[in-house]
Write a structure and sequence with these properties.
Number of domains: 2
Number of strands: 21
Strand content: 25-35%
Order of helices and strands: EEEEEEEEEEEHEEEEEHHEHEHHEEEH
Radius of gyration: 23 Å
Structural class: alpha+beta
């Protein structure tokens, strides 16, 4: 959602970053006087029923829109804290209840007349304070989200903010090259794979899969000479995901300037910590070291870090873009290891509850062959080498 405001004589644009429930998680401000440096105006994490998590919220100003995208009343009306006006009733997320009886309570005798969203706040929203509803912003319930005209508008906005440049990424496509994945399932002539979605009865539960074969191998020699523009790389990958254009699987060169950006990332640090715990004693005893295959880690950019880093921690960098990734570590010589970071970008890749038994929304979209598939899954592989002695020092 884009909100326009005017500060003094210069207009400013506020981009609301929301999740599948319409909750405003972050607001990025783009001032007309400084369009190259977006700033974080607010950041918020919510409990399931909408109360803001203590110590996990920040706002440069009192931004008025929050849970379910509703406008909040900071003064509140009952139960403490802010309240939200849903139209027919006032809702207080601190007590997870509406403050008046549901006008449709006779139609739903199994519910308390003060319940919110049918007591299913992870799946449903309460649009107007009446009956629970499947979230209309959820791509599964809103076909127009995949309409070419709508997608074109999203991409136009993205291109303006992040200066999308298709020519920045160069390389060649190898139809026989494969992605290093953890689980595989064969369907006809195709082999699909996933890093975290273990198949059951030959099917993947959340569809977070990509084709095993066919990889676009990036040539980053121009970046070695002129430096890496991380913003352009993220814009390229997001453009490919949202439009369904471009390549399904992208691999960045080992020890190239792009892969090297992740050497100090949280996901790599977590992987190397596990590697150290497993192998430190073996290394000292001169025994063979054990490789680590497909440990999945969530990349958490905590609000405190985001605030201190200001606009540097946002959708501009690869670590934030990934959200979660798998780390593989293999010994390639007596002194060296190779660290690979594999990520699958999908609609549900950032959904912590995607494997919950009650979760049946927004399954990921597998790309169709030879056809543009908006929001279709894409993968990225990054890798670099490092000394074993250096890896065992990472904390």
């Amino acid at each position: 959602m884009v909100v326009l405001h005017k500060k003094g004589t210069a207009p400013s644009v506020h981009y609301e970053l929301t999740n599948h429930l319409g909750n405003v998680l972050a607001v990025i401000t783009l001032d007309a006087n400084n369009v190259t440096q977006p700033a974080i105006e607010s950041l918020t994490d919510y409990y399931p029923f909408g109360m803001e998590e203590p110590g996990r919220s920040y706002s440069a100003e009192d931004y008025r829109y929050g849970f379910n995208g509703k406008e909040k009343d900071f003064d509140g009306l009952g139960g403490g804290g802010s309240t939200y006006d849903y139209g027919f009733r006032i809702y207080n997320p601190n007590i997870a209840r509406f403050l008046s009886v549901d006008p449709l309570t006779s139609k739903y005798p199994w519910y308390t007349p003060y319940q919110f969203a049918g007591n299913m706040p992870i799946y449903s929203v309460d649009i107007d304070g009446l009956e629970p509803s499947e979230n209309p912003r959820n791509p599964q319930n809103q076909d127009e989200d995949r309409d070419p005209t709508t997608i074109s508008k999203y991409i136009d906005k993205w291109n303006q903010i992040f200066n999308y440049d298709e020519s920045y990424i160069k390389g060649s496509y190898d139809e026989n090259a494969s992605v290093n994945l953890r689980y595989y399932v064969s369907e006809g002539d195709e082999i699909y794979g996933s890093i975290n979605d273990a198949p059951k009865d030959g099917e993947f539960y959340s569809n977070e899969v990509v084709r095993r074969y066919g990889v676009f191998k990036v040539d980053d020699s121009n970046m070695k000479e002129h430096g890496v523009d991380e913003k352009k790389i993220v814009a390229y990958l997001m453009h490919s995901f949202v439009t369904g254009k471009g390549y399904e699987n992208v691999e960045f060169p080992t020890d190239g300037p792009v892969s090297s950006l992740l050497k100090k990332s949280s996901v790599v640090r977590l992987g190397l910590n596990d590697y150290r715990r497993i192998n430190q004693c073996r290394y000292k005893a001169g025994k063979d070291l054990i490789d680590i295959n497909f440990l999945e880690f969530n990349v958490q950019v905590y609000l405190g870090n985001a605030i201190s880093a200001s606009s540097h921690v946002s959708v501009n960098n690869l670590e934030t873009f990934m959200g979660s990734a798998a780390v593989c570590i293999e010994k390639i010589s007596d002194e060296d290891i190779k660290v690979s970071v594999i990520n699958i970008t999908s609609i549900t890749s950032g959904d912590a509850m995607k494997h919950a038994a009650w979760n049946d929304y927004s399954k990921s979209v597998v790309r169709l062959k030879d056809k543009e598939t908006p929001y279709g899954n894409i993968s990225q592989t990054f890798s670099f080498t490092m000394k074993i002695s250096e890896a065992l020092k990472v904390r």
